[in-house]
């Protein structure tokens, strides 16, 4: 749920809907002695905040606190390890050509790059496209040269709530995250790749919740 400070008029609308649900926007506007268009943005904000629900041709309903709490708890309790997919990995020395073929064969948009079983980078569709439109020999060029590399890789962990993983995807404007476990060898921290979380995994959770 989006936490927002409500304006006075939005609080008034909530009280009206609580007492009169289901109620149309026209009737809400009449009770406030305003036009429908004057309250349109307030209604949208209340819907986005999860406080009101709109049913077409019926009107607006108040969403009970416990219902919202239930949704929030659900999303807080689902962990990355509950929804992750198998990772697709490639060695840093593999050619860009092989990386592109792997991307097609495995039907993914991102490949994780490893060396000695440790995460060292990520290559995505755009990285491959950029390389192909330059005058590079993609049979000779290794993916290790074109990847985004550690320590700039955004990762998630098996016990992280999926809400946190979703937040990282949105904040960093990327499509997927490697799911990793930390390993410390001779005081150096490494990441072992255990899975993958993409926008699709997160979207699937929303769909499952609603069917
Ligand atoms: P696409 O190339 O299909 O748009 P992304 O938006 O995920 O895919 O990737 C955009 C850029 O971000 C690429 O340069 C890619 O290497 C990089 N990138 C992708 N995933 C990650 C990640 N988890 N951490 C850091 N960089 C990433």
Write the layout of secondary structure elements.
Elements (H helix, E strand, L loop, with lengths): L7 H13 L4 H8 L3 H13 L3 E4 L3 E4 L2 H13 L2 H4 L5 E3 L4 H11 L3 E6 L2 E7 H9 L9 H4 L1 E2 L12 H11 L3 E10 L2 E11 H12 L1
Helix pairs in contact: 1-3, 2-3
The structure holds adenosine-5'-diphosphate.
Describe the structure.
This protein has 211 residues and is of the alpha+beta class. Helices cover 46% and strands 22% of the residues. The radius of gyration is 24 Å and the shape is elongated. It starts with 7 loop residues before the first helix and ends with a helix. The mean pLDDT is 92. Bound molecules: adenosine-5'-diphosphate. Adenosine-5'-diphosphate (ADP) is lined by residues 109-110, 122-127, 148, 152-154, 174-177.
Separation of termini?
20 Å
Which outline best applies?
elongated
Q: Radius of gyration over alpha carbons?
A: 24 Å
* E-strand count: 8
Instruction: Name the average pLDDT.
Output: 92
Give a summary of the structure in a few sentences:
This protein has 211 residues and is an alpha+beta fold. The chain has helices at 8-20, 25-32, 36-48, 65-77, 80-83, 96-106, 125-133, 143-146, 162-172, 199-210; strands spanning 52-55, 59-62, 89-91, 110-115, 118-124, 148-149, 176-185, 188-198.
Keywords:
211 residues; alpha+beta; four-stranded mixed β-sheet; two-stranded antiparallel sheet; 10 helices; 8 strands; 46% helix; 22% strand; elongated; binds adenosine-5'-diphosphate
């Amino acid at each position: 749920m989006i936490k927002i400070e409500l304006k006075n008029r939005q609080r008034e609308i909530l009280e009206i809907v609580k007492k009169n649900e289901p109620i149309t926007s026209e009737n809400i506007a009449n009770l406030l002695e305003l036009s429908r268009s004057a309250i349109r943005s307030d209604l949208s904000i209340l819907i986005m905040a999860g406080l009101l629900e709109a049913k077409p041709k019926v009107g607006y309903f108040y969403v009970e606190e416990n219902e919202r709490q239930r949704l929030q708890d659900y999303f807080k309790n689902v962990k990355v390890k509950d929804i992750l997919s198998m990772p697709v990995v490639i060695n840093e020395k593999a050619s860009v050509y092989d990386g592109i073929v792997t991307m097609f064969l495995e039907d993914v948009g991102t490949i994780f790059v490893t060396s000695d079983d440790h995460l060292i980078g990520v290559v995505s569709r755009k990285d491959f496209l950029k390389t192909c439109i330059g005058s590079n020999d993609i049979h000779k060029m290794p993916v290790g040269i074109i990847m985004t590399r550690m320590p700039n890789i955004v990762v998630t962990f098996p016990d992280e709530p999926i809400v946190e993983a979703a937040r990282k995807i949105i904040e960093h404007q990327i499509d997927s995250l490697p799911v990793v476990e930390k390993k410390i060898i001779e005081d150096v921290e490494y990441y072992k790749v255990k899975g993958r979380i993409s926008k699709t995994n997160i979207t699937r959770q929303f769909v499952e919740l609603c069917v």
